[in-house]
Amino acid sequence: MADIIAETDRLILRTIDEGDALEQDRVLNTPRVMARLGGVKELHEIEAKHATSRALYAQEGFSFLFMIEKATGELVGHCGIKRVDHPLAKNQGDHEVGWLVREDRWRRGYAEEAMRAVLDWAFGRVCAPHVVALTSELNVGSWKLMEKLGMMRRKDLDFEDPAFPPEDRTTILYSLTKEQWENAR
Hints:
Layout (H helix, E strand, L loop, with lengths): L3 E4 L3 E5 L5 H7 L15 H18 L3 E6 L5 E9 L11 E7 L8 H14 L6 E7 L3 H9 L3 E2 L5 E2 L9 E8 H7 L1
């Protein structure tokens, strides 16, 4: 059974439950939504990520979450915290935050609303000293939200990922400390 981690004005953020992969595949796994994230995934890849997320939550008390729209009860995205685990990243093990919103809910402020709650969770109950966020250099909407949240660009942590197409190979990082988050609020 899923745990509710946070509620915002419009969203319930809950843990990912067994059996949620089909809904994520149906709602979030589209060419436009996944364009800067390596493309559409196979169902078994989503299931594996969900298993990892559930294990991380059981082990460390944080993970990625489903964003459920209160007004409709529908899945509108996912967001949360994990450990940086990319083999090319220079900051393995840091707390990494991220988000994804379904296409028909873009430009409604859901990502910002959810991430404000996730950052409160990261710096509150999770006790992260700092968080990072990774994105493609071309994912302008993503890094603009990072900046809106008070995150600072960390060019020293950028890396090239040959698994992505040439235009998306540069992975850029932003970071935010607990103190910066508290001062920005």
